[in-house]
Write the structure tokens for this entry.
Amino acid sequence: MKTAIQIILTVAILALGYLCVESIQKPVRFKQAHNERKEKVIERLEGIREAQRAYKTLNGKFTGSFDTLIEFINNDSLRLVKMEGRLTDSMLEAGMTELEALKRGIIKRDTIFVSVKDSLFNKNFIPDSLRYVPFTSKEEFQMEATTINTASGVEVPIFEAKVHNNTYLNGLEEQEIINLNDADLAYERYPGLKVGSLTEANNSAGNWE
């Protein structure tokens, strides 16, 4: 029979082994969950970007209001130009232009209007979901819009939508989130995911791109 000391040693060895395994598995589990959440958040931010670009096409500026953006998605339409016919190689070699082909009726253009929702999103998309950060209890993205003057003096509309790591990773291993934030700050990066910028005209790029 095992003595009390042997039992204690066995338990201690098992506990130590568990701690060693857990120290390896924690970062692995965090990375998997982080990547899963990151993918969904990026997908939502890309949707915001597409809606903002469409809004700017019609209104000449971006909006800092989700209410305005969602109303736009639900109720507005985008103008699309549909072209029928084409210039053949022989027509191009003969020097025919697209304008001349239009006048002759070789090419026809029709303007059609398509709803923003149908144009940008799939049929099951719920516009109001655009404001909410995935994996949260309806936490909203931070979104602002403004204009800046470029070095050449041109006024350019810009917008930014973002979410902090602490928000979309809430509930995961706290120390791993702290480590992630520290790494971002060390490289002077925003500790989270964002699209666009309020300080520069960056063509609405995402900070994951």
